[in-house]
Design a protein that fits this description.
By secondary structure, the chain is an alpha/beta fold. The chain has a single domain, classed as P-loop containing nucleotide triphosphate hydrolases (Rossmann fold, 3-Layer(aba) Sandwich). It is built from 10 helices and 10 strands. The protein has helices at 56-63, 86-93, 111-122, 127-140, 157-168, 187-204, 215-220, 239-244, 248-255, 257-265, and strands spanning 16-27, 30-41, 45-50, 71-76, 79-80, 96-99, 175-179, 207-211, 224-229, 232-237. A hairpin with a 2-residue loop joins strand 4 and strand 5. The longest helix is centred in the C-terminal third of the chain and has 18 residues, at 187-204. The structure holds adenosine-5'-diphosphate and magnesium ion. The site of magnesium ion (MG) has 4 residues, from helix 1. Keywords: ATP-binding, Nucleotide-binding, Transport. Belongs to the ABC transporter superfamily. InterPro entries: AAA+_ATPase (IPR003593), ABC_transporter-like_ATP-bd (IPR003439), ABC_transporter-like_CS (IPR017871), P-loop_NTPase (IPR027417). This is ABC transporter ATP-binding protein.
Length: 267
C-alpha cells in the first residue's frame, strides 16, 4: 500500500477523530514529514511505528500544535485546528491527554499535586473534590492511595509512568496521546503498562494514539498500526497487514530476530 492509497475498506464508515492531511514539517533544509496523511478512528488504539529519528514525536507534536507545520491540515473531532479561536482551542485541548516520551512529572510536587495541576488550571473545584478526583485517577492507573503524598523521586520508573498517566487522565480526555510510554521499563513492567492502556481504552472508551517501537505492544494492545518512513505513512492496517508488507524497513522490523521471538511468544 502506498501513502496515497485510500483508507482500507475495513476502516471506512468509522469516525476519524484525528484527520491529518498532507502535512509537511521542515526544520531548516531538512524535511521530516513529507505530505503525510493519517486517520485515527474513534475508540481504537493506533500504534505508530517507524525508524528512530524518523519523525514520530514530531508528528505527535504537530497534531498537538507544538511544532509549526509548513503546510497541511490537522482536524480533531472534525475541527480544523488552524481555524479555532484561543478559547475554542483550549476547550478542545481539554478533550485530549498527553503522556510524553520523558513522561516528566513536576519534581517538586507530590503525585496528588501533579494530578491536580491540570484541574486547577482549567476548573474551579473545591479541595475536597480535587482530592477525590486525584484518588480516583491514582486507583484507575493501578497505584496505591499512599503514593498520593509521595514525590516523584520516591517512586520507581513504572510508578512514575503510571502517575504521569494519571495526570494525563485528570480532565477525563477522549483521546490519549502516548509517546513511547513503555521505553525505559523492563519487559514485565512494559507488559503491565500495555494491559493498563488496553483496560482504560475499553472502560473509558478512549481513542489512543501510541508511538511505540515495542513489538509486544503492537501484538497485544494495538487495534491498528501505521508505519512512518521517508516522512510518510508507508503502510497501515492490522499486524497481519504489516507482516505482509514488502517495504524493506517493514520487512526488517516485523521479520527481524526480535520480531521472530515476539511472534513465537504470541503464537
Ligand atoms: N525542534 C526541532 N528542531 C530541529 N530538528 C528537530 C526538532 N525536533 C525534531 N527534530 C528532528 O526531526 C527528526 C525527527 O525527530 P523525532 O520526531 O523526534 O523522531 P522519532 O521518530 O524518533 O520520534 C530528527 O532528525 C530530529 O533531530
Ligand atoms: Mg520520539
Amino acid at each position: 500500500m502506498n501513502a496515497s492509497a485510500p483508507v482500507p475498506a475495513q476502516t471506512t464508515g468509522r469516525e476519524a477523530v484525528i484527520r491529518v492531511r498532507d502535512i509537511v514539517v521542515k526544520f531548516g533544509e531538512r524535511t521530516v514529514l513529507n505530505h503525510l496523511d493519517l486517520d485515527v478512528f474513534r475508540g481504537e488504539i493506533l500504534g505508530f511505528v517507524g525508524t528512530s529519528g524518523g519523525g514520530k514525536s514530531v508528528l505527535t507534536r504537530t497534531i498537538l500544535g507544538l511544532v509549526p507545520k509548513t503546510s497541511g491540515t490537522v482536524e480533531v473531532f472534525g475541527e480544523n485546528l488552524d481555524d479555532l479561536s484561543e478559547r475554542e482551542r483550549s476547550a478542545l485541548e481539554r478533550r485530549w491527554g498527553v503522556l510524553f516520551q520523558q513522561g516528566a512529572l513536576f519534581s517538586s510536587l507530590t503525585v496528588k499535586q501533579n494530578i491536580q495541576f491540570p484541574l486547577r488550571e482549567n476548573l474551579k473545584l473545591s479541595q475536597r473534590l480535587l482530592d477525590e478526583i486525584a484518588f480516583t485517577k491514582i486507583e484507575m492507573v493501578g497505584l496505591k492511595p499512599d503514593v498520593a503524598e509521595k514525590l516523584p523521586s520516591e517512586l520507581s520508573g513504572g510508578m512514575i509512568k503510571r502517575a504521569a498517566l494519571a495526570r494525563s487522565l485528570a480532565l477525563d480526555p477522549e483521546i490519549l496521546f502516548l509517546d513511547e510510554p513503555t521505553s525505559g521499563l523492563d519487559p514485565i513492567g512494559a507488559g503491565d503498562f500495555d494491559e493498563l492502556i488496553k483496560t482504560l481504552q475499553q472502560t473509558l472508551g478512549l481513542t489512543v494514539f501510541m508511538v511505540t517501537h515495542d513489538l509486544d505492544s503492537l501484538h497485544t494492545v494495538c487495534d491498528r498500526i501505521a508505519a512512518l518512513a521517508d516522512g510518510k505513512v508507508i503502510a497501515q492496517g492490522t499486524i497481519e497487514t504489516m507482516m505482509a508488507a514488502t517495504h524493506p524497513w517493514l520487512r526488517a522490523y516485523f521479520h527481524g530476530t526480535r520480531a521472530r521471538a515476539v511472534q513465537a511468544a504470541h503464537g
